[in-house]
Amino acid sequence: MEEVITISTTGILLAAFAHFILGFIWYTPLFGKVWATEMGINFDDKPKTGAMIKGMVLNLTGCLLMAFVFTHNLDAWDFVMEKTGFDASITHRALMGAFFTWLGFYVPTDLNLLAWEGKSFKLFLINTVYHFLGLAVAAQILVRF
């Protein structure tokens, strides 16, 4: 029997929006000033409206792409666990999918920013924890749709 990947447009849209909102909260009230300082940006200098809109559109596009590809990843993860007989709750499966995706794809990229672009360890932590939480939130939504 051929396995079919199930794509939920609603799940992808909700996961992308949740990830986008998490980013807003993470990089504005929670760690905005620290992040800006570590990036060498004056937090009090407000970007022009056009730059803000462009940034938000690109960010949301990235969130949509991530959710679309991640839903395939989670489906493949479920298939492997099913075939190996690994029994776990839907929440546990989502967290495992998020963790291993983060560990294999996000952490190496974030480490390169630390190693080759001279970014601080503090910035590494702010970004990489956000990446994990974003994946974890998206995964919890995607596995339920």
Task: Note down, in words, how this protein is organized.
The protein is mainly alpha-helical and 145 residues long. The two termini are 23 Å apart. The protein has one domain (9-142). The mean pLDDT is 91. The protein has helices at residues 9-30, 32-39, 49-84, 90-116, 121-142. It has five helices and no strands. The chain is globular and about 55 Å long. Helix 3 (49-84) crosses helix 4 and helix 3 (49-84) packs across helix 5.
Question: Briefly, what is this?
Answer:
The protein has one domain (9-142). The protein contains 5 helices and no strands.
Write the layout of secondary structure elements.
Elements: H1 9-30, H2 32-39, H3 49-84, H4 90-116, H5 121-142
Helix pairs in contact: 1-3, 1-5, 3-4, 3-5, 4-5
* Main sheet summary: none
The residue ranges in which pLDDT falls below 50 over 5 or more consecutive positions are none
Number of helices: 5
Distance between the termini: 23 Å
Task: Work out the helicity level.
Answer: over 70%
Amount of beta strand? under 5%
Structural class: mainly alpha
Number of DSSP-assigned strands: 0
Oligomeric state of the chains present here: single chain
| Secondary-structure element string | HHHHH
Number of domains: 1
Key terms:
145 residues; mainly alpha; globular
